[in-house]
Design a protein that fits this description.
It contains 15 helices and 15 strands. It has 390 residues and is α/β, with parallel strands linked by helices. Helix 6 links the parallel strand 5 and strand 6. Helix 1 runs parallel beside helix 2, helix 2 runs parallel beside helix 3 and helix 6 packs parallel to helix 8.
């Protein structure tokens, strides 16, 4: 199950703290009741990274992603210590992509310069909306003016910049979204992550929705939003390379491509997940969710792992399908066959192709080419995956 490319992998570091919890968010993020002991977290990150380094000897790190939570609440010294530890444990490829997530409300020019000095070369900003009423409704701590200032600071500090926007918001119209999206593109971003607002169980938005106090766009309106998103970004040279991610050629997120291409990555920090191929077997790892419990576990055991399961061939193949079919490039048919231990059912391929859900690219190439969902198929991706995996 491992090939030469699996010797190159990514490292994800989860910083679990935020200044406030957004009402739509179901990520593992926490609002601390007292100052975070960052040196203690640095020591724990170092210990957990060392644990994974022992299991991945000889491999090369091609990307690092500091996610959260709000990693821009970390002191630059903390970021420097974590990145230095990664560099001491593994070979880090020349030109490796090193991303830090940031919220506009926590952006300071001096702090950003400190991150750049530490080695961060790409920042991802959680802008989410470009009008103040919706920012307030989404629970964001910044306004539009602060978001624009943060983008300018990031642009002048880092070689690469991305920012996130959420569409399909309550009371939003497709025409309003088109204007907002064009404004975002004019802000000189070469990468945009554009997410449709979804109601996640257990969030405040879910409670409001269930109580009838939050109205969401219906399926037809959501389809309109999606079409606007695809057409506007493509017209401005930022086509979708993944269902929710758009970039100018060459500006794709290399770290996230590791996930979608089903390559290996280490996940450290509270609630971090990872996928590692060890001795030909794919391991699914996950760490303790709660920051304080994760710290105690790492300090006693050297890691915070609560899950370290070997995936069956079927489980690994299903994951590869779900991730790879999100990509515009599709997935490698030959690699799927290798991982699953069986080829795709030709009758299912034929039926889905006939119904316009998938297409096979470069079928005469070695390995059988690539399998890709069409625009129609992407709107029912889960059903397509289930059909192919059956």
């Amino acid at each position: 199950m491992i090939d030469e490319r699996e010797t190159r992998f990514g490292v994800y570091v989860h910083w679990p703290f935020c200044a406030a919890k957004c009402p739509y968010c179901d990520f593992n993020s926490h609002v601390p009741h007292r100052a975070v002991d960052q040196p203690r977290f640095v020591r724990a990150f170092a210990a957990e990274l060392s644990h994974f380094a022992e299991r991945t000897a000889g491999r090369t790190v091609t990307s690092i992603f500091l996610g959260g939570g709000t990693p821009s609440l970390m002191a630059p010294e903390t970021v420097d210590d974590v990145l230095s530890r990664i560099g001491a444990l593994w070979t880090v490829a020349d030109g490796a992509e090193i991303t830090l997530e940031a919220n506009p409300s926590s952006v300071e020019a001096e702090r950003f310069r400190g991150y750049r000095t530490a080695g961060v070369n790409r920042v991802s900003l959680g802008v989410q909306a470009l009008n103040d009423p919706d920012l307030k409704r989404l629970g964001r701590l910044h306004n539009v003016a602060e978001a624009k200032a943060a983008v300018e600071i990031a642009r002048s500090t880092f070689p690469r910049l991305s920012f996130d926007l959420i569409y399909g918001r309550p009371e939003q119209t497709p025409d309003e979204w088109q204007g907002e999206l064009e404004q975002a593109i004019a802000m000189a971003a070469d990468h945009l992550s554009l997410y449709q607002l979804t109601i996640e169980p257990g969030t405040p938005f879910a409670a409001l929705f269930q109580a009838g106090r939050l109205t969401m766009p219906d399926d037809d309106r959501q389809a309109d939003f999606y079409e606007v998103t695809q057409s506007v970004t493509a017209a401005h040279g930022l086509p979708a390379y993944e269902i929710s991610n758009h970039a100018s050629p060459g500006a794709e997120s290399r770290h996230n491509m590791t996930y979608w291409r089903y390559r290996d990555y280490v996940g450290v920090g509270p609630g971090a997940h990872g996928r590692l191929t060890i001795d030909g077997e794919k391991h699914a790892t996950a760490t303790e969710l709660h920051p304080e419990n994760w710290l105690k576990r790492v300090e006693s055991d050297g890691h915070g792992l609560v899950t370290d399961d070997v995936l069956t061939l079927e489980e690994a193949a299903d994951e590869m399908l779900l991730m790879g079919l999100r990509l515009d490039e599709g997935l490698e048919i030959g690699r799927y066959t290798e991982i699953s231990g069986r080829p795709f059912d030709p009758e299912r391929i034929s039926a889905l192709t006939t119904h316009g859900m998938i297409e096979v690219l470069d079928s005469q190439a070695a390995g059988g080419g690539r399998l890709r969902v069409t625009r129609a198929g992407s709107s029912v991706l889960d059903a397509v995956v289930a059909d192919l995996a059956a």
